[in-house]
Amino acid sequence: MSDLQKAWAKKKLNIMAPEGFNELDEDHEDGHLPELPEINDDDSSSASSASSTGTIVPSPSRNLFARPLGPPRETILLAQQQMNWKELPPIILVGHSLGGAVVTDLAKSGSLGSSLLGYAVLDVVEGSAMDALQSMQTYLSTRPSGFATLQAGIDWHIRSRTIRNAMSARTSVPALLVEDDSFGPSRPWRWRTDLAATERFWPDWFVGLSKKFLEAKGGKLLLLAGTDRLDKELTIGQMQGKYALQVFPEAGHFVHEDLPEKTAQVLVDFYRRNDMSALVLPPKVSELLAQGKRV
């Protein structure tokens, strides 16, 4: 779903920003990720994965949440099997943009039971997301349809400030593109996901997100790139202390890529606040009396 995510980041920016801009400091060497394998899932919805890099063929009979106990929960259970866990450990769900809608729906379903400590949603709010969808076709018609090289695709993401951290762009962008020589030698690197093919599902992706976010059980964290993204329901919820809010105004829509270290620290702190395993409760009065102690 990276294309949808980019539309949000570009809502108040020009399609192509000036060449000069301040990159974040980086001490890493250049490197590329290997191309991800394609996913075959004939029974998938158009967005059955919280990942933004899979190739999914939309099915008219399926929508994002058509299977309440479907791919998100199945993925967690597969991880449990792979790690040989007898039972699920304490879990914090984290989702960005559309992924935030997926993890919120999973949290609201209650299918993870007491294993779910909380969930964190990165830069997605129902009201703003619905508004952004209205300009999606315009965005899709103006972005490059392909790139001459993989590096050109990375450079475009940095130059347009879709991703504001060069190291993050070099890490994540290769998985968003696939080389297809059938388009000719001029621009063989094409978008892995055909977002336009999922248009019929767009209106359903974020409907009811704010309500589910506030009502689901567990700790709640909303990490935004700006407070202007809050809708009325979430603003009221914040005033009532129903969730934790963290704002990084210096970041774009890809908060976790623009500021990876700060985002990681916020998530670690969120986990620690909700982890009760290290909590030591004082002994009960009845236990003290049974031990012959005065209370």
From TrEMBL:
<keyword id="KW-0378">Hydrolase</keyword>
<dbReference type="GO" id="GO:0051723">
    <property type="term" value="F:protein methylesterase activity"/>
</dbReference>
<dbReference type="InterPro" id="IPR016812">
    <property type="entry name" value="PPase_methylesterase_euk"/>
</dbReference>
<dbReference type="InterPro" id="IPR029058">
    <property type="entry name" value="AB_hydrolase_fold"/>
</dbReference>
<dbReference type="InterPro" id="IPR000073">
    <property type="entry name" value="AB_hydrolase_1"/>
</dbReference>
<feature type="domain" description="AB hydrolase-1">
    <location>
        <begin position="87"/>
        <end position="265"/>
    </location>
</feature>
<comment type="function">
    <text>Demethylates proteins that have been reversibly carboxymethylated. Demethylates the phosphatase PP2A catalytic subunit.</text>
</comment>
<protein>
    <recommendedName>
        <fullName>Protein phosphatase methylesterase 1</fullName>
        <ecNumber>3.1.1.89</ecNumber>
    </recommendedName>
</protein>
<feature type="region of interest" description="Disordered">
    <location>
        <begin position="19"/>
        <end position="65"/>
    </location>
</feature>
<keyword id="KW-0719">Serine esterase</keyword>
<feature type="compositionally biased region" description="Polar residues">
    <location>
        <begin position="53"/>
        <end position="62"/>
    </location>
</feature>
<dbReference type="Pfam" id="PF12697">
    <property type="entry name" value="Abhydrolase_6"/>
</dbReference>
<comment type="similarity">
    <text>Belongs to the AB hydrolase superfamily.</text>
</comment>
